[in-house]
Amino acid sequence: MKTWQKMTIRIAALSIAAVAMAGCSTAKNNGSQGNNPGKTVKIGVNMELSGSAAGYGQQQKQGIQLAVNKINRSGGIKVGKSKKKIQLVIRDNKTSNTTAASVAAQLVNNDKVVAVVGPAATNAGTASIPNMTKAAVPSVSPSATDPDYTLQKNGDVQKYIFRACFQNNFQGSSAAKFMTNTLKAKRVAVLTDNSSDYGTGLTKAFKKTYTGTVASSQTFQEGDKDFNAILTALKHKKIDAIYAPGYYSELGLIIKQARQAGINVPIVGSDGMADAKLTKIAGKASANNVYYTTPFSTKSGDTNAIAASFLKDFKAKYHTTAPTFSALAYDSVYMVKAAIENEGSANSVKITDGLAKLKNFKGVTGTITMNQHHNPEKSMIVEQLTKGEVQRTYNVK
Amino acid sequence: MQTIGQQLINGLSLGSIYALLALGYTMVYGIIKLINFAHGDIYMLGAFWGYFVINKLHFNFLFAMLSAMLFCALVGVIIEYFAYRPLRKSPRITALITAIGVSFLLENGMTYFFTANTRNFPQAIQTVTYHLGGIQISNIQLLILGTACLLMLLLELIIKRTKMGKAMRAVSVDPEAAQLVGININHTISFTFALGSAMAGAAGVLIGLYYNSIDPLMGMTPGIKAFVAAVIGGIGSVPGASLGGFLIGLLETAVQAVGLSAYKDAVVYFVLIVILLVLPAGIFGKKTKEKV
Questions:
Q1: ipTM exceeds 0.85, yes or no
Q2: Binary contact (A55, B215; C-beta < 8 A)
């Protein structure tokens, strides 16, 4: 009896070991790396659809769906000689880093997507990098702006990680140059959204480049509604301008409350402000003397035919003016499409190569060339709001 | 001096909102010893109700606010009936967890139906700014302060002078004895929820008008701050909640005024800890002796 028991255990142990080994070997010896497309090209969306960043995530989802509908209506993506339709797999990461990581694993391992769009925020994006890299599937984030997002700890580029937006250093230093050269601001106050890497990163980059005096540096949190106390304190500081990197939901309130408090100096912000909602929240009368750095605006359609058709389609489908986040997400999908068509293959590793080699890609947010750090190079413009309307645009070198 | 006066006004308008919310927490706690974490979300529902009736039905501001109070009172009673009443005999922690669940349900339900986008609240009243000796105060700030004080006074009258108020006080002291003398506990508790939620509804519409921006998660932070205000004032005590609300509003403003905006929430919670250490029952809380 005893020997029989021992035998069973031994056989069981051996078979477990064998299964485990087999698992290893399939993972290592699989001829072609990465995921391959089936009848359709499956693109995953790892997005903040609920939780604190849901506002931005939902806008990006709209941009993604608009792009996919448009591509599918014209027959799909040209893969080699045939055309394949896109199948979206949309999953909610609930604005949580751990969920973002498990959503990434689900998308690449179970759904077998060949590319992922998202996540929106740098934190959630960084959490999903290991799973993307392990599966050799590229991801394009429409809005992860942290400079280190596409880099490894030692400074090498993350092979599978791309973004469609500006990185903070570029945008923050452009704002600093604009304020020194064009606005001639010698003393500024900085108001930072310190609940996001976006706000803190931009402020860091701004302070590094700005040569004048920073008279006051204050912070606020995402979701804050009352800025009267900070603004009242700023009023007597003799400042020439305010630099306030953040999103339109808070910036709209800052502009409104600043103007009501009698602070009329220029307020300069970042592309998180480039949204028609900014004027709606601030009120037309208050949205004066407001500037922001952006790759895209509602006026982009005047000079860029792709942006014009995007703005038109977006309005027709969602009955509202397209926000920047939707534009960036729309471009992310088209970047994946361009990568597939340039490489002639929808294998995930091939898409990665295609994205890294992307050159002169004509998108809604400008003409994009991917640099060696997987940051898109496109031109930066500064827009000026007067009575809530974009009145002038400046190019920043 | 001007700056200090201006900051005082900023603090008071912020504080009056916290006070209105804190009243709901404190009344519900006083009567059934439940911290109703869904209270901040009822405030959000009030703001959305105001948004829809002003935009779609073209109500004027007064009617929008009164209907929001009515609507929120109804929502409060429904939540109590379905979520808390079946748990009245269960351990307190069960009801507390249910409250958090209701809060999530309201937040995510609204996000699902109306998207998480920030909306601009219709400006039913034109903002007029008055200048008084270098201090600016807008008609909306005055409206908020006035409405808040009026509602608090009204609440105090209801609790102290009416039969229902007497019943509420009786139930909060000893529910079983109250029942023995013929008080209908269920009605009394429903009434308390209705009152507290109506306050939150009014606060929601006022905030919508004041800041011009509403979203489904707008109740989270103010909800927690108001809870802190209720605890500082002595949870269960109505004047305590009002005082706590104004204290938190002034404190937050003061911290930002001296340039420590990054620590404004930290300071609020730090004060909470200190008060709990020094006065565990809060400023106006009753000291209860427990027999061991």
A1: no
A2: yes
Question: What would be the CATH architecture of the domain defined by B2-278?
Answer: Orthogonal Bundle (1.10)
Question: Which residues in chain B are closer than 8 Å to A253, comparing Cβ atoms?
Answer: 211-213
| Secondary structure (3-state) at A106 | helix
Cβ contacts of B245 on chain A, cutoff 8 Å: none
Q: Do domains A41-166+303-377 and A168-294 have the same CATH topology?
A: yes
Partners of residue A281 in chain B, C-beta under 8 Å: 118, 120, 212-213
Which residue of A lies nearest to B220 if distances are taken between CA atoms? A223
**CATH fit for domain A41-166+303-377, picks 3.40.190.10, 3.20.20.60, 1.10.3710.10, 3.40.50.2300:** 3.40.50.2300
CA B254 from centroid of its chain's CA atoms:
22
According to DSSP, residue A322 is labeled: P
Which pLDDT score, from 0 to 100, does residue A13 have? 63
Query: B120 contacts in A (CB within 8 Å)?
Result: 252, 277, 280-281
Question: What sign has the CA pseudo-torsion A36, A38, A43, A46?
Answer: negative
Q: What is the pLDDT of residue A160?
A: 95
Whether the predicted model's global pTM rises above the 0.95 cut: no
CATH number of A168-294: 3.40.50.2300
- The verdict on whether omega for the bond into residue B175 sits within 30 degrees of 0, i.e. cis, is no
pLDDT along chain A (397 residues), means of 10: 63 59 44 82 92 84 96 92 93 91 94 93 92 94 90 92 90 90 91 86 91 90 87 88 90 91 91 82 89 82 88 93 90 95 93 94 91 90 87 78
**Residues B259, A216: C-beta atoms closer than 8 Å:** yes
- pLDDT value of position B291: 57
Query: How much is the average pLDDT of B221-236?
Result: 88
Higher pLDDT, B85 or A396: B85
What's the pLDDT score for residue A12? 63
Whether B24 shows a pLDDT value over 70: the answer reads: yes
Test A281 with B212 for CB contact under 8 angstroms.
Answer: yes
For the cut 80, the answer to whether the pLDDT of residue B133 exceeds it is no
Q: Do B213 and A229 touch (CB under 8 A)?
A: no
